[in-house]
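Entry type: protein chain
Record version: 2
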Amino acid sequence: QVQLVESGGGLVQAGGSLRLSCAASGNIFRPNRMGWYRQAPGKQRELVATITSGSITNYADSVKGRFTISRENAKNTVHLQMNSLKAEDTALYYCNLLGWREYWGQGIQVTVSS
């Protein structure tokens, strides 16, 4: 079993920054892909960014140039640095780990006030 614990969410003004972190523990399969998804009220969950064990990254077009994903393999941790935040970035952000099966965190709220 794998547990994902997210941290770093909160309320920020438009144009500000936040850094999300997700720590994975348990029986972690490698190689794997870790990442972040988000879900705004009334919308479907969407990909934000992912990163593989080999540090290959993928970003949604809406966050390219503003968000940066990184990981620390030794600590099984993934980070999401979010800069130039916009009101439309407001959502519940979920950590995701894809190995031989898929795991999700509980979600953490990010609210951007305009």
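Comment: The chain has a mean pLDDT of 96.
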